[in-house]
Amino acid sequence: MVKIIRLACRKVALVKRIEQSRVRLYRMAYAWCHDHMLADDLVQEAQIRALQKLDQLKDEAAFNGWIYAILNNAWLGHLRKTRPSEDIEQIIICGNDSPEHEMLLQQIDQIVAVGMSGLPNAQRQVVSLVDLDGLSYSEVVDILQVPIGTVMSRLNRARKALSKSIKKNHIESANKTHLVTKVPVSRTENRLRMVKK
């Protein structure tokens, strides 16, 4: 009887945790697909699958890797069905600073978004899991089911490509608008970690 009660309490706690993971899953799905509606659909599909496969989670400490793996499978299923859209919408960030500062942040986010959209899907997934969500390499290995060397090489190539793209777009943006005169590129690169829904 006690085991049944413990099992029921565990399931209730996991269901609640799945519900609370929506924001993190949405942010990751959006980083992968750059489409608000598709990201929402992927999150809903991942949460439904997680609820259906609740008994498969043996170690609650591995919850984040487990739920991200389900989201990754939903994303890969979508890619198999359709060609991914590469349209980028401007990412909205929160802040109450001056209008100039807000405009600067929007320009930085746009440059990063353009850089992210130019990455191959595999690199975009790894850089968003590691740099946007702060997951460890071993968690990314579990989510994407690839060797750790592959994760490291994809991350390295993605960061180099992003850095190159950011520098190029930063210079082009500054020349076109004349509004950004001297923003250090390192600050632009650091905004990658701050890009959110």
Main sheet summary: none
The number of strands is 0
**Average pLDDT score:** 79
Strand content: under 5%
Global shape = elongated
Oligomer: single chain
Helix content: over 70%
Provide a count of the helices: 9
Q: How much is the radius of gyration in Å?
A: 19 Å
Alpha-carbon distance between the termini?
Answer: 45 Å
Order of helices and strands: HHHHHHHHH
Structural class: mainly alpha
Low-confidence runs of at least 5 consecutive residues: 84-88, 179-183, 193-197
Structure in words:
The chain has helices at residues 2-20, 22-33, 36-52, 63-81, 99-117, 121-132, 137-144, 148-177, 185-190. It is an all-alpha fold. Helix 3 (36-52) packs across helix 4 (63-81). The chain is elongated, with a radius of gyration of 19 Å.
List the keywords.
9 helices, about 200 residues, mainly alpha, about 0% strand
Short recap of the structure:
Helices cover 72% and strands 0% of the residues.
Topology (SSEs and partners):
Blueprint: H1 2-20, H2 22-33, H3 36-52, H4 63-81, H5 99-117, H6 121-132, H7 137-144, H8 148-177, H9 185-190
